[in-house]
Design goal:
The chain contains two helices and two strands; from the N terminus they run H-H-E-E. It has 104 residues and is mainly alpha-helical. The model is unreliable at 7-25 (pLDDT under 50). Bound molecules: iron/sulfur cluster.
Length: 104
């Protein structure tokens, strides 16, 4: 009885680790958003927030970037991370688009 419980727990930990590792690899493999991509153009995405067209996107304010947007799915220290606005392709931490919402 004890052995089978231990075996079950060890198998569960192994399976969970495999999923965790698998999703990290999937994040790292996700393609980066191209600024010329139609969705990127529609949302005014720039990989460098300082290059945002401020005349067209008056809501942009200095200091806003993907790294402090609530949709960014990485840590602020990651150079790139997935964003659901772009089907989970990776956006630059220093990027910005018009769907920006300040992280609470
Ligand atoms: Fe960056 Fe947020 Fe726009 Fe995604 S929604 S590209 S994280 S500013």
């Amino acid at each position: 009885m004890k052995t089978s419980r231990r075996t079950f727990l060890m198998t569960s930990v192994g399976v969970a680790s495999t999923f965790a590792l698998g999703s990290r690899v999937a994040f790292a493999d996700a393609p980066k958003v191209d600024e010329n991509d139609p969705t990127a153009q529609a949302l005014g995405y720039k990989a460098d927030a300082s290059k945002v067209d401020k005349a067209k996107y008056a809501k942009y304010a200095a200091g806003q970037d993907c790294g402090n947007c609530q949709f960014y799915q990485g840590k602020p220290t990651d150079a790139f991370a997935p964003c659901p606005m772009f089907s989970s392709k990776q956006v630059a931490t220093k990027g910005w688009c018009s769907a920006y919402v300040k992280k609470a």
